[in-house]
Amino acid sequence: MTVRRDLEELSAAGDIERVRGGARRCASPVHSMLRREYTHIEKRDKNVAEKAEAARLAAGHIEEGSTVFLGTGTTVEQMIPFLPSGRLRVVTNSINVFNLLASRENCELFLIGGAFRERTGAFVGPLAESAISQVGIDAAFIGVNGLLGNDVYTSNMEEGYFQKKAFDQADSRYIVADASKIAVRDFYSFYNLSDIDALICDGGITPNQRTSVEEFTRVICPT
């Protein structure tokens, strides 16, 4: 019974793979590289439940009356139904976040303008970067395309430049992402994970994934 229990624990941790008649050590994790930039519409239907779980948890870290930055992306968008009902100031460069919040009461809403990227619904470029650099933010919540080692990845350099400036303006910095983004590399690394206050993730994160992230920052996930 002890051997069986040990094998089950090692399998759950991702250290071994159960096979007929025994077990074998798992190969070293393969770090996947995104091959193209997916559109907002393509991302919207991926890992919906996992994104919602992370988004609900992230929204719980927003204090009533605070000024927050909400970045682009389908995971951050799912935070909106769970935001505090009281007074809130929201800054965003996402047309989708803006539209979802436009009719919300008790929300002072600021849309950062600039060059528009239809693929993601983000405003970027020098005008957007200049505007965000003048704003004080209590907490920034940004989605990502990948996390690998100490690198935080996105697909587009201009979006990366802007997201870096948004994080730099914030007192607290949070990445909101489901576990599928861990051990994934994309085109452009825009921030160090060690400079982030926490990764807010869904409950599907594995022990190995959690360990790889906690080398650099906290992980907040359902218990």
Automatic annotation (TrEMBL):
Role this protein plays: Repressor of the lactose catabolism operon. Galactose-6-phosphate is the inducer.
Annotated keywords: Repressor, Transcription, Transcription regulation
Top-level lineage group: Bacteria
Domain HTH deoR-type: 1-25
SMART domains per UniProt: DeoRC
Keyword Transcription regulation: yes
Name of the protein this chain belongs to: Lactose phosphotransferase system repressor
SUPFAM superfamilies given in the database record: NagB/RpiA/CoA transferase-like (SSF100950)
The UniProt record lists the keyword Cell wall biogenesis/degradation: no
GO molecular function list: DNA-binding transcription factor activity
PANTHER family: GLYCEROL-3-PHOSPHATE REGULON REPRESSOR, HTH-TYPE TRANSCRIPTIONAL REGULATOR SRLR-RELATED
